[in-house]
What does this fold into?
Amino acid sequence: MTNLFSAPSLFSVLVLVCTVHFAAASTLLPDDEVDALREIGKTLQKTDWDFDVDPCGVEGGWGDNKVIDETSDAVTCQNSSDANNNTVSHVISIVLKEQSLGGTLPPQLFRLPSLQNFNVTRNYLNGTIPKEWGSTKLRNISLLGNRLTGLIPKELGNISTLLELVVEINQLSGPLPPELGHLSQLRVLHLTSNNFTGELPQRFAELTALQELRVGDNQFTGKIPDFIQNLTNLDTLSIQASGLQGPIPSGIALLKNLSDLRISDLDGHESRVPQLSSTNIEALILRSCNLIGELPGYLANMTSLKVLDLSFNKLSGQIPDNFSSLVVVDYM
It folds into this structure.
């Protein structure tokens, strides 16, 4: 009788089993990161994550583990090699947009050491922004359109890797922490539609990498700070109904990269339309800013201009004839 489990055959089976097991194990997320995801899901009230499969795989709704895609809802991982040249996966992105999440923001993000992107746009999250995030290496944070309250914690100023901070359309309040001025790499800061108070911190003059700054629809006090002129990389500047007072600083002429400038509802002294040096402006809104005098001649050189709103001021003069396709609200 032939022995179906001879030594060579049994050895081959064992090698195959071990090889398959090792291959699977080498791509799995470390246990401590799986545990962190469990806590994060519970805190967010995310109930459909399937922990019976690998969170770094494509089964169980976890998403593609190869490319960060900020337009899709997924947990994204990236493989790397450890000191022993073993392949290890780490979570680098969590995107959970428009999922009706009703929990709170998870302090546990610091337990994902490779996490770069956290986006929970348009949910029903409440509570405060965790100060524990200050020890992460996040690059992008988007909390837009939730029900968050309280202050922006000063500890966020410790995230030296941060490129984007978006907290628009929440119920955040209080003064902005000056410590955010330490974010030397920050490119996007969106604060619109909250209940922030106080003056814009002078230390924000150090945010020289900023390309987009939006502070409208808040309850700030004081004048538009002169340090705006230091932010020479700004492409977009929005100070609409912010609570800040005029006049518009003359130093705004130094912002040569502007393509979108929106300022409105300024109290304060009357002033003339500020000199602007950027010829790439596509949207220029200076509504209800106590502006007087003639329309500036430089408008004729703004060949990229598509939207012009100078309404609710005391201006005179004519819109240039070459603006035949311009969307003009008013300028009186």
The longest strand covers residues 87-95. The chain has a mean pLDDT of 86. The helical segments are 7-27, 31-44. The chain is about 10% helix and 25% strand.
